[in-house]
Amino acid sequence: xxxxxxxxxxxxxxxxxxxxxxxxxxxxxxxxxxxxxxxxxxxxxxxxxxxxxxxxxxxxxxxxxxxxxxxxxxxxxxxxxxxxxxxxxxxxxxxxxxxxxxxxxxxxxxxxxxxxxxxxxxxxxxxxxxxxxxxxxxxxxxxxxxxxxxxxxxxxxxxxxxxxxxxxxxxxxxxxxxxxxxxxxxxxxxxxxxxxxxxxxxxxxxxxxxxxxxxxxxxxxxxxxxxxxxxxxxxxxxxxxxxxxxxxxxxxxxxxxxxxxxxxxxxxxxxxxxxxxxxxxxxxxxxxxxxxxxxxxxxxxxxxxxxxxxxxxxxxxxxxxxxxxxxxxxxxxxxxxxxxxxxxxxxxxxxxxxxxxxxxxxxxxxxxxxxxxxxxxxxxxxxxxxxxxxxxxxxxxxxxxxxxxxxxxxxxxxxxxxxxxxxxxxxxxxxxxxxxxxxxxxxxxxxxxxxxxxxxxxxxxxxxxxxxxxxxxxxxxxxxxxxxxxxxxxxxxxxxxxxxxxxxxxxxxxxxxxxxxxxxxxxxxxxxxxxxxxxxxxxxxxxxxxxxxxxxxxxxxxxxxxxxxxxxxxxxxxxxxxxxxxxxxxxxxxxxxxxxxxxxxxxxxxxxxxxxxxxxxxxxxxxxxxxxxxxxxxxxxxxxxxxxxxxxxxxxxxxxxxxxxxxxxxxxxxxxxxxxxxxxxxxxxxxxxxxxxxxxxxxxxxxxxxxxxxxxxxxxxxxxxxxxxxxxxxxxxxxxx
Length: 737
Hints:
Beta-Lactamase, 25% strand, Rossmann fold, 6 domains, five-stranded parallel β-sheet, five-stranded antiparallel β-sheet
């Protein structure tokens, strides 16, 4: 009979239609369905294509006989009873059919009652066998160990899984005491309670440690049920055992991990906490109790995690917890934490949801006290503000640029005024665009700081208005927010460069002066030495006229030497500030006329026309007569010196409002306009290629210093090859002033 709820089906195979009808009638009376086959081939097709629960088979059929069909059923292990229906009462044939596997052998004509009884018995017996076979297969294929013992604990059955787990074969354990599996890990009381429970007819369930054949211990979850016989006495015990060794190991590993977590968290100086799904704190490490001030009994009474934080933070915390549960990133982890005593402090909280297969179980987190960090941050902000202020008040222009692109990203106020750009305009520039040199030079300006050390170079920048300024560029490379920045400091060295050029020029002039003075000193000295030596050696041979001439030359050269030395001494006194002028109210006309009279001879010797013109109107000045005389002589001597033969020099004295005006005009070689300012500098002499002119370059500087000391002025008007005119103005002296 089928194990399912489907109706029982009987296959009737007979070549006689009458017999098929007759037998079908009997089968239908029993409540079974029928299918029929008229020969052996059809019967085999029916069996192969459609399941049936029993086969009523005629032996004598054409093509294939009933014996052939029976052989097919047996060889292919079809689990159904075959009842032979034959017209022959041959005993040997019947025995052969039974041996081959037939359930029963009936002879025709068939007794309906016997057919009914035989069919019912066959179906019942095969149904029972099918149940037993299914049960055996289930036990053999079970993923748990199954053991059956008698009442005394002798093993009568083990399934294959038991053998795989324990390493024993069924032959090893059958008729052996179940105590063969004892591990020695449990007490006698454990086994006593087990025996009392099952022998009392109760089911016993627990975890037990047993031992395999090779001595390895393993854990099982075991259920032992007593089995009662037909008189209700316990005859056997059925044990169903699940190998939970891995689960136990996982459990132990979890316990070890949990213990390690607790131990490690207790070593942490930061609070660590856990909550359940309702936000109740279930765990604090030592630091948690210490920092927040709670005790274990506070957790036992129930402590909500929100009690650890400022009430104003609750909404943010809840939102962040929801995001973490969803796996989203929450932004704000910084909160104000509350201690039990009500005091608060800033913290960073890092937490993660505790998730299991059942879903969200709570949160686990660590709390970092950032009080000191916040203090440091405030200090850093203060320092940053101070540095920003310092950065802005530094008197030199400062530019900060991105090192890779050269784009300007920051600047101080001085940079804006220095370069003349607005903030928007400066932000649109690169640092290279500030320089006026070539591209290669610009690369040098920004590339030399690549060593992370400070470097400096002189260069030129161009302002927004187009002015070129000489600067000293100092730069350093530094890291800022994962970017390389170039800090460039510009120092205006325009005046410095002018001073350097002036110093170089003064050094050159001084060197020229030394050479000139040496030359000027040697010339009169050589003349004096030469003529005096001749007089000493040949005085007896020389006539009176020649001797007088030689003495005159020696006298003139001595005066020239004295004048040269006096010029040098005057310059020295002027530089040291030790000149003391003896000023008094004088009429300048006699001084000017006297000075010019002393120079007429010199002009005549050079064939230069020398004239003097003094206005008749009387005037007075507050001046040192000797100093004024030196002014006239120096200007007139220069005029005669630079005026060629047949030229003219004119000295005039006049009055212009409140000023005395001394004019010295010549028709000489003139002065280039570019040298106007330089001719009054010490040691400077106008370069005249191909000409060698006497002098030290001190005459005009001495004149300028004297005029300045008398609160006057001196100007020059000249054109190359057309002569020069010098104008000296001194303030007139009024009565009592």
